[in-house]
Amino acid sequence: MTDDHVCEQTTSLALSFSNQAYSRDNDSSNGVHSTNLRNKDKTSVVDNSVHLLESDNHKLQGVFSFGDNSEGCCGLGSLESSRQPIPAHVATLANKKVVQVVCGHRHVLVLTMEGEVYSFGSNKFGECGTGVASSTPIPTPVPITTVNYDERGCSLDDEGRIQTINERIPKKASIPVYTKNGNTKIRRVVFIAAGYSTSFALTDDDRVYVWGRNESAALGLGISGGCVHTPVMNPYLSGLCLVEIASGGVHGLALTKQGVVYGWGGNSYGQAGFPSGSGASSVIAYPTIIASLQCTHFSHISCGKDMSFVISTQDDEVWAFGYNAHGELGLGHLSPVPEPQQVVGLQSKGIIQIAAGIRHVLALSSSELVYAWGENNYGQLGDGTVENSTSIKEIHILRNRRVTQVSVSEFASFAVTIHGELFVWGSNEKHVHGHPSASGFLSPRLATWLSHLETSQVVSGLQFTIVYQNARLQKEIPSSSLMNDWIVMLETGQFTDVTIFVGSQRTPLRAHRLVLISRCDVFRRMFLTDCVESRTGNIEVPDVAPNVYQLFLRYLYGDQISIPLDFAIDLLALGDRYDLPRLKALCEDCLRKHLTITNAAKIFEAASLYDSKELKQVSLQFISNHFGEVVKTNGFACLDKHLILDILVKSPSFLRFTTKSLEEQSSMTMELHKEDEKEESPVHNENREQETQPLVTERHETQFV
Q1: In terms of DSSP bridges, do strands 22-27 and 351-356 run parallel, antiparallel, or are they unpaired?
Q2: Which of 54, 143, 341, 385 is least enclosed, having the fewest CB within 10 Å?
Q3: pTM above the 0.70 mark?
Q4: What spans are recorded as compositionally biased (Basic and acidic residues) (predicted)?
Q5: What is the pLDDT of residue 440?
């Protein structure tokens, strides 16, 4: 099975089932809906344009979480804080190319481009798959390894040892028998799903692994009850050529490449797709084809707590079944729907995604319109009211916003646009909106306080939210080849119209007038005036080594060079001569990183000569810290006496180092001043300059400069 088989439209399986008591106050004047938990002070509404993090005009990339963190749901590595009121970076995933994130009730699964699965959050029932029954506050790899089954429904490891899940798993003749293959093999996962306390992973070899709570056969293993704390292969789902899996409270759906839908688990309201009620089974022990849906080819599936939806993009239809006490099936009534029924209100609307939560649902169409229905006591339907709706309503505020994905939490809703904008509405209980003080919104509000985050996807659990960039949706734009093309022309000498004679041997280096003019103001002024260089196209640079100047030209043409330490001071001199701050900064960074006792004096001299204030301060501090060693080096001995005096005056280590008396120190300082006075003569000063300035780094311009 390949990635092409997997639907890349990530659907938030936001399954949250708490029935905590709320009181509500409505403020229709500003569209803000205030919600309060009992025994909790009422929160205030603030200007939602406040930015919580400095972004320096650059959007922050990565996985960010906010909201309830009571069981490590935010993946921040700590359980000390039960809430995360503003976005926090999930640092463990910083270097991962994330392609899918799904949320259960209080746990999270993350899938990377490499096929790895990470989990964090609540793990009471093994839903994180780490093998322990305690919360996992930091993203942890989930071991998806080879586990084989024999015809009895027992699992076999790669050594052929039996690892019985439950002896009551019935034999299913159509299930292939997987045999021992030698060594343990890590499976590459291509799709993940999460329910209340359940987790599913589909691998590239068409196997399905499950873990978590198995109440009402929620894992589809053919039995009901118990927990699975590490991933095991589901023999009934493996080998079906699946493209999607969805999980609800205690039920699940699976969609095959052929458009066939399987259902299993709790079926008290018909949410698994089979008749419920008197005489009907309330539990579907293992995945079974939903016969009433066999005449239609389906493309997407979604599960809420006790309800299910299937989408046929081919026929432009949506079917719903299950619990409906609050109108969450969008059928215009409150009666339960024990068997799949077409949602007339969504027919011919081009629905491509459905996000089903506990009691309310959002739908997204191919024309980028957003629809909502179900419970609305906290404004989660986004229509400006708190009235429930049994019928489909378009959220008009989001029209023309180009929405690409929707998600729901317990009492909140979210939408992401193609521009990376995030809209939020409904309750902000436990800061599920990422706003530290707002109570909530009765209609979609642009989350400007999150505008510093690069967002392409949003998912939510009970009362926590995660935003991230889907690596599958990020198209790689080829890098510009302009600089590379310029370098090729420099190296081949094609179309050159300038000759630079470098060094005492006048080594000719060919260049392009247009490139030099566009990259350097000194060359621009040179060629725009009537000087000898402009007329002849010949430039004399006698005081620089040819290999250094060649490297300098490569910087001008390519904007990036790897600076050898041996050339760093010479290139710093050229950066200063040709007024190139970026080149100077690159050289300064190289010298700063390679500062040693041997070269400290030379670097200090270069920093002083070429006006590199920060590098001068760093090298001076280094010399001060290692004065006893630096003073013995040849570089220090060759320093200009003024620079030595500068070091002695500014270095407190000098007084600690010297073994002379205070009188001797004073005498030495006076001698330096006397020598300075002697050198005030113009002739003597000229001789001093010739003695102290090295040829390669001499501050000397071309004829024009």
Answers
A1: unpaired
A2: 54
A3: no
A4: 671-705
A5: 94
